[in-house]
Specification:
The protein is of the alpha/beta class. The chain has three domains: 3-203, Class I glutamine amidotransferase (GATase) domain (Rossmann fold); 212-416, HUPs (Rossmann fold), CATH 3.40.50; 437-531, 2-Layer Sandwich (GMP Synthetase, Chain A, domain 3). The chain has 16 helices and 18 strands. The chain has helices at 3-9, 24-32, 47-53, 79-86, 95-103, 192-203, 212-226, 241-254, 279-290, 301-308, 314-340, 353-358, 399-408, 413-416, 439-456, 509-522; strands at residues 14-18, 38-42, 57-60, 89-93, 107-123, 138-151, 157-162, 167-172, 177-180, 233-237, 258-264, 295-299, 346-348, 389-391, 465-479, 482-495, 503-504, 526-531. The strands form three sheets. The chain has a nine-stranded mixed beta sheet with strand order 2-1-3-4-9-8-7-5-6, sandwiched between helices. Strand 11 (258-264), helix 9 and strand 12 form a beta-alpha-beta unit. Helix 8 packs across helix 13 (399-408) and helix 15 packs antiparallel against helix 16. The radius of gyration is 26 Å and the shape is globular. It comes from Capsicum baccatum (Peruvian pepper). One of its GO terms (cellular component) is cytosol. Catalyzes the conversion of xanthine monophosphate (XMP) to GMP in the presence of glutamine and ATP through an adenyl-XMP intermediate. InterPro entries: Class_I_gatase-like, GATASE, GMP_synth_C, GMP_synth_GATase, GMP_synthase, GMPS_ATP_PPase_dom, Rossmann-like_a/b/a_fold, ThiI_AANH.
Length: 544
């Protein structure tokens, strides 16, 4: 569903203008958890892009910039006049507060004392943002700023200060401008959600009414309107949650004019968590009997591996895989045209909102395309000359929301609980050439032991994502009283709500000891097991 379509459906849209904070997506998540629809767009978007969405509330996010920096990102010309004319409440967070203060005639300077991390603030006035608090009440919040508002615009007042005396919260209730110099969206701000709830419901007068049932109903209507009565659509099914839910939504909208293709490309192995022994047959059976999805299975092992041979650069691997998928879809579409007499015009993809956010250019970068962390296989890995038009029914949803939608459509719970699996498959879990030696076979075996051990320990549902990584290095070991020179592998398991940020899972040492022994004793060619204990950020969840 396009943002404008869903926004117009919602009379309570909270629009977030993103200025580059690593926490911006959390604002979106927190607001949606209150059953209020929220969207995030680039903070430098045009005024028409903002007015078209018709928001009730606008939040200016934090960001790494200083308002004094050349080219610092800013809302568009005419923004202040627009929000005042429409009576829109505006909340600036960190950089957003400083931007409001500066643009409305106040003064922002480099602070004498920078404030980072947990800080205590005190309520100075129990009005507006702290109308539900008492004067003198204190709370722990998460600060992250170097600049400081030292003179407020006319009509503004300070309602909260840090224990160092810096401005922590400001407002002009008459003009509906508010600002927080801390991040209420992070859990480190203990009363942050209470402040957001008070602002949205009590100050802005929004009502809770956004739910997955309505989203599903509206999405089906949009797809019906988009796809002509004689048009055919194809969908790539991976066996994962996203593509399955996306296909089911489209199938509800257009029925058997949807044609699904399941590609076995050697990068999603018969031993993997999705494709263990006879797992491919079980997944296919679920598609056909439980979900009633028409599916064709295509074996493209040779095509993928031959194209990837010798390729070591991560971004190139993703591009090759994306292009090869499209080649297969084009062939499938051509064969389907012979069968039904009409060539498919649309391709369904399970793109999620985090995929879209991570593939957007950073605010203030001056670029129309981002400095790529990695191309998402749905967003950045597809060729520009692709002949099929895209349908992305989940592109505004987070993972837990997708699972909730799947539950509404009676997709088996066990299927919905599956860990995320990357579109490029095991190719992004083997740094370097995926075809070198027997790296794929080793990785499949190690991954099988790791995932099965997690399931046997009863902790699978506590973990957002778990997998093994094959390292293209050899280490010295001693096995069977003999010196070995074998491969090292890494284990990765993280907890998360949406995949945008993640923390490593704290395994019991006994579990790790057992898994390490099983791997080294069972998998020929491995003599060392490492554990990845890096959060996101600074790392991504996948290694490539």
């Amino acid at each position: 569903m396009e943002p404008v379509t869903q926004a117009k459906k919602s009379s309570n849209l909270v629009l977030i203008l993103d200025y580059g904070s690593q926490y911006t997506h959390l604002i979106t998540r927190r607001i949606r958890s209150l059953s209020i629809f929220s969207l995030c767009i680039n903070g430098t978007s045009s005024l028409s892009s903002i007015t078209e969405l018709n928001p009730r509330v606008i939040i200016l996010s934090g960001g790494p910039h200083s308002v004094h920096s050349e080219g610092a990102p800013c809302f568009p010309s005419g923004f202040i006049e627009y929000v005042e004319e429409k009576g829109i409440h505006v909340l600036g967070i960190c950089y957003g507060l400083q931007l409001l203060v500066q643009k409305l005639g106040g003064v922002v300077k480099i602070g004498e004392k920078h404030e980072y991390g947990r800080m205590e603030i005190e309520v100075e006035k129990n009005e507006g943002l702290f109308g539900n608090k008492g004067i003198g009440e204190k709370q722990l919040v998460w600060m992250s700023h170097g600049d400081e508002a030292v003179k407020l615009p006319e009509g503004f007042e300070v309602v909260g200060r840090s224990n160092q005396g810096a401005v922590a919260a400001v407002e002009n209730r008459e003009r509906r401008f508010y600002g927080l110099q801390y991040h209420p969206e992070v859990t480190h701000s203990v009363e942050g959600m209470e402040t957001l709830r008070h602002f949205l419901f009590d100050i802005c007068g929004l009502t809770a009414g956004w739910n997955m049932e309505d989203v599903l109903e509206e999405e089906i209507k949009v797809i019906k309107a988009m796809v002509g009565p004689e048009d055919h659509v194809i969908c790539a099914l991976s066996g994962g949650v996203d593509s399955t839910v996306a296909a089911t939504v489209v199938h509800k909208a257009i029925g058997d004019r949807l044609h699904c293709v399941f590609v076995d490309n050697a990068l999603t192995s018969v031993l993997h968590q999705y494709f263990r022994y006879k797992e491919r047959e079980r997944v296919m059976a679920t598609f056909e009997s439980d979900l009633h999805l028409p599916v064709t299975c295509v074996d493209a092992t040779e095509e993928f591996l031959s194209k990837l041979k010798g390729v070591t650069e991560p971004e190139m691997k993703r591009k090759i895989i994306g292009k090869e998928f499209i080649n297969i879809f084009d062939i499938f579409a051509h064969d389907l045209e012979k069968k039904v007499g009409k060539k498919p015009t649309y391709l369904v993809q399970g793109t999620l909102y985090p995929d879209v956010i991570e593939s957007c250019p950073p605010p203030g970068s001056g670029r129309t395309h981002s400095h790529t962390i990695k191309s998402h296989h749905n967003v950045g890995g597809l060729p520009k000359d692709m002949k099929l038009k895209l349908i992305e029914p989940l592109k505004l949803l987070f993972k837990d929301e997708v699972r909730a939608m799947g539950k509404i459509m009676n997709i088996p719970v066990a299927f919905l609980r599956r860990h995320p699996f990357p579109g490029p498959g095991l190719a992004v879990r083997i740094p370097g050439d995926v075809t070198a030696g027997n790296s794929l076979d080793i990785l499949r075996q190690v991954d099988e032991i790791f995932i099965q051990s997690i399931k046997d320990a009863g902790i699978y549902d506590e973990i957002w994502q778990a997998f093994a990584v094959f390292l293209p290095v050899k280490t010295v070991g001693v096995q069977g009283d003999q010196r070995t020179h074998s491969h090292a592998v890494a284990l990765r398991a993280v907890t998360s709500q949406d995949g945008m940020t993640a923390d490593w899972y704290y395994f019991d040492f006994k579990f790790l000891d057992d898994v390490s022994r099983k791997i080294c004793n069972s998998v020929r060619g491995v003599n060392r097991v490492l554990l990845d204990i890096t959060s996101k950020p600074p790392s991504t969840i996948e290694w490539e």
